[in-house]
Amino acid sequence: MVKLVIMRHGESEANRDRIFTGWTDVPLTEKGIQQAHDAGRLIAETGLVFHDLHTSMLYRAIKTAHIVLEETKQLYIPEHKSWRLNERHYGALRGQNKDQSKPKWARRKLNYGDVVLKLFHHYWHNRTMILNTRTGRASCRAAKAWKWRISD
Question: Cα separation of 73 and 150, whole Å?
Fold first, then answer.
């Protein structure tokens, strides 16, 4: 029987600092490295044998995968990297602190900063805010278009 194992990377510096990263390459924290070792040991206890590894192009995912393979003594398996497995690109939110972004939406008279950021962060079918290259500011049009979802 074929088994698919899906694993998220360990804690990154951006996770720890609550920063939107998406495609920004950030390293794992010591805690994230430890999480990867712990996950690898748990997988090793199951006796699961991997045949292939598929990962994103991001350092934090690759590092986590290598630690897990090292713990399971399976560093020899074929490895496939693709940008298609990268995390969501956050557009204008990239590099911003998640907590500090909420008040910015309230200042724009949208009055639902928490919900808008949740839509951008957790739902793949929503487009992220577009960065206006002329002004360097994010467009609010996308958030206003989702007002019907917020009122549900």
Answer: 48
Catalytic annotation, pick one of 87, 89, 121, 122: 87
Sign of CA dihedral 80, 92, 101, 122: negative
Per-residue pLDDT reduced to its tens digit, 66-125: 999 999 999 999 999 999 998 877 777 777 787 777 666 555 544 444 555 555 555 545
- Note the pLDDT tens digit of each residue in 90-105: 777 777 787 777 666 5
Q: Is residue 65 within 8 Å of 90, Cβ to Cβ?
A: no
Whether 51 sits among the annotated catalytic residues: the reply is no
How far is Cα 56 from Cα 82, in angstroms, rounded to an integer? 5
Is 89 one of the catalytic residues?
Answer: no
SS3 category, 27: coil
Contact yes or no for 117/146 (Cβ under 8 A): no
